[in-house]
Amino acid sequence: MFRFLHGADFHLDSPFTALSREQAASRRAWIRALPDRLAEYVRAQGVELVLLAGDLLDTGSCYRETAEALRRGLERMAVPVFIAPGNHDWYGAESPYAAEDWPENVHIFRTGAVESVELPALNAVVHGAAFTAPEQETSLLRGFSAPADGRVHLMVLHGEVNAAEARYDPLTKEEIAASGLAYLALGHIHKRTEPLRLGGTLCAWPGCPEGRGFDELGDRGVYLGRADDSGAVSLRFAPFARHRYEILRVDVTDRTPLEAVEAALPQGTEDDLYRIILEGSTGEAGVDLTALGEALSGRFCALELRDETRIREELWARAGEDSLRGLFLGELREKLEAAGTDGERELIRRAAGFGLAALDHRDLG
Ligand SMILES: [Mn+2]
Description:
Layout: E1 2-7, H1 21-32, H2 34-45, E2 49-52, H3 64-77, E3 81-83, H4 96-99, E4 106-108, E5 115-119, E6 124-128, E7 152-158, E8 160-161, E9 170-171, H5 173-177, E10 183-187, E11 196-198, E12 201-204, E13 221-227, E14 233-239, E15 245-251, H6 257-264, E16 273-279, E17 281-282, H7 289-295, E18 302-307, E19 310-311, H8 324-338, H9 342-359
The structure holds manganese (II) ion.
């Protein structure tokens, strides 16, 4: 029996273009700490083999510190580590994989032909191949078949299965089912998939171990595998993200925004990045996002607030009043009734809120 770890798609040095320079630099720094954190985990869990299925680096021209952080983390794992380069970190003469002085326990697959490395101590063989260009239009698994020789055969590859387009190592389910592999460790799909059994082969994508934006939400991590002597492989997901991205929609109707948010938030969000979207209806004053952000400060690693609330309908009741307020509301209500789209209606409701606030000299923040 041995334990292995399967990770992929670290995308170290992602540019984080949606962030300020300072924020992007700080996020690159924490993601750069990932290999060291994984090394600690490998040692604590008694992992004996590490399979990394590509796109560990976001580009072939990563920062020197990044390649160094990866090199150091992998060395600290102190067990055999196998890397199958993907479409972002494809193997070429200029690649950091060719330039860096990689530690002895690290094996990088360098060609599009499957290479096999025997690990007698584990009674296992690790197979793998590399992207050698940003695209790989033929399946790297085509024609492969592991011998039934009583050893545990594992493979690590970056690729897709039954993909609509043939650009990223288009593997087929039939090839996998016929591969004779106990486990196929895949990369490329950023959202974790549940393990899939095809023939006698188990395969899975662990996804990115750290979210990089509000399109990569929730718990993320790596797979921890166990291969027993009969060659049977089982997997369990190991959450590993230090900072999770989460989107929370909160209805503020009939409550103060702070009460509503407090009631909806789980415990322990201090390390997470939240986008909170307020919805429902409010009084005329709307939501004071600045005050809400201040009241919630310290509860998150980062917080983004969005106001999608609208002013309560009762507000229109005063549209008939003989006052500036009544005239203003009356005119807007006509526009509201004539509006053709939800977007227009939303805009008019917001205009009503702002206008009433202006009439009352209220500060909308
Ligand atoms: Mn990829």
